[in-house]
Amino acid sequence: MRKPNPALHLTPPADSGRIADPVMAVPVSFLFGHPEGFRVAVRLATFERDYWQIDSGEELSRQHPDTFWVPPLDQRRGLKRGDAAKLLFHIEAYENDGSVGVRSERMWVLVAERVGDTYIGILDNQPACLERSDRVYLCFGAEVPFRAEHVLDIGHPPPEYVAWQLGQPPDRVWPRDYWRDSAEAEPGAAPDTAM
Question: In which domain, by residue range, is 149 found?
């Protein structure tokens, strides 16, 4: 097995136990598809619901134009499956004194799919402030929703690594919201389950 690009911090944790056949590199939504007659939307993470969220690189660049660069918008909007995107995560975590604080970490995700204007990336780092646990969503291999405004940097990992990482099911699957594709249905409305 070839070593991943260490410059992008793409090395999986030794205890992840993740293995894959590169031939199986197919996005989950292509495997299962979406129910016929339904549309799909993906929400972003929030502190209130998820205990973490992603900061806007665009907003940081506006606030600090001389010191905070982000790639041009057309590049951030044009990410393809297998591209790497660096994001700034803010994560609620326990401090040494037992209190809860917010830690910030820049981490990479590999783009797996796109739903409307939202990308679904696979987290390619283990957050340093969180211990890997079945009770914690955010971990190496978890799906992470983000948009072009969140991208701090773009990378292009080796194809062999992309095939390995995207060729297996994600460790955590981010929820998708479905609604009936009709004139009455509005995006964000509860799905029509009467079938």
Answer: 39-172
Q: Alpha-carbon distance 49 to 67, whole Å? A: 32
Place of tokens 């598809």: 33
Cα dihedral 171, 177, 179, 184, rounded to 10, equals -160
Q: How far apart (Å, rounded) are the C-alpha atoms in residues 183 and 127? A: 43
Cβ within 8 Å of residue 125, ≥6 positions away: 9, 105, 107, 108, 140
Which segment of 32-36, 96-100, 120-124, 152-156 scores lowest on mean pLDDT? 32-36
Residue 18 falls inside a structural domain: no
**38-87 pLDDT, tens digit each:** 677 899 999 999 999 999 999 999 999 888 899 999 999 999 999 999 99
Beta carbons within 10 angstroms of residue 71's beta carbon: 17
Contact criterion met (CB below 8 Å) for 177 and 91: no
* Rounded-to-integer distance, Cα 90 and Cα 106, Å: 9
In a domain, 27, yes or no: no
